[in-house]
Amino acid sequence: MDFRLNxxxxxxxxxxxxxxxSSIVPVAxxxxxxxEFPSPTIKQMGELGLMGIEVPEAYGGxxxxxxxxxxxxxxxxxADAAHGTIMSVNNSLFANGLLAYGTESQKLRxxxxxxxxxxxxxxxxxxxxxxxxxxxxxxxxEKSADxxxxxxxxxxxxxxxxxxARYIVLFAKTDPEAGSRGITAFLIDxxxxxxxxxxxxxxxxxRASATCEIxxxxxxxxxxxxxxxxxxxxxIAMGVLDAGRIGIAAQAWGIAAAxxxxxxxxxxxxxxxxxxxxxxxxxxxxxxxxxxRLEAAELLTLRAAWAKSDSAQSGARYTLESSxxxxxxxEAANFIAHQAVQIHGGMGFSKEMPLERFYRxxxxxxxxxxxxxxxxxxxxxxxxxxx
Length: 387
Ligand code: CAA
Prior knowledge:
The chain is α+β, with helices and mostly antiparallel strands and 387 residues long. Helix content is 54%, strand content 15%.
């Protein structure tokens, strides 16, 4: 087994780290405070090729592998998890569906501008009454008599980047009697009549990533704007989430790494009772547990990324690897951020340092793109076949 990164992987990791530390770290606290969408830095990330890392160059991306993607996303998230969320939805939830199921003309029209970072993409699955129970959606797409277009009506909620996205992959019921096999994916242009945005959600963490409800009222979608086949939407949604969950694992790994590194330095500098606090056994236990969980989160995330890259040749599903990485890394990030605040004491609680932001930002990684409870269900079902 070779754990070394290749030249391209090291190059993208270092480039993302340099950019994140020099351009995102200085502005992260202010964007967290204001909750404003960080357009200037996101634009620069597009110019650096970070908004479509796995997308081939012909469609506006960087043409790299999934390991490159998670390494870059970890660096961006270590600087600011909100930037990580925006990057992750663009790369994972928008680009992956188009890459796997888009026609050539859909890739050129929708994927190219989003992968290059010129426009922002989003993904609309959840609804006010259906989050974890995703197939229980109500948004309805009715086919015209001649089959040339669909009329879509209903509300979607928790749409990350919804307030700024130009294009959205949206899932709707085309056959309400057919359960999860009656769902179809559509490509939505947010500048078309019939599309409206609700208020931006006020959030506990990742505050600079914009989230809103969206509503479609007699929105007309041409049949050529359907992604994949009619009835294939739920499988597309789940397959895309398999990829997305690796991104959330990488984001959690980044938050955990930043919280751990701050703590490692602090315990060497901070003196109490005449010596550095890192010399006390209770602090040593925290450092040891934090470091070990950080390492395990890294390995599971890289393993899942490798499984996804490998699936391009083998065609094998990587649902299990992805869910285990997301479950473990998100819980590790919450543990590590919690310990980091504790180690820093009053300074951990203060907005003068980033620890309290890491603590608030870590929470969402246990919730979105499938809660920890859903990941445990996916893992257990995969292992036993029982439901
Ligand atoms: N890949 C491909 N197909 C899959 C699949 C996968 N990973 N998982 C399930 N399917 C297929 C099944 O094979 C089945 O197909 P058939 O009917 O042909 O047999 C079909 O989908 C239905 O599968 P299930 O019976 O397992 O479906 P279920 O209703 O029991 O739900 C679930 C399974 C795992 C709970 C799923 O609903 C789920 O993942 N829920 C969580 C949803 C989620 O993560 N939401 C987050 C939204 S995105 C977000 O967070 C916002 C954002 O912008 C960041």
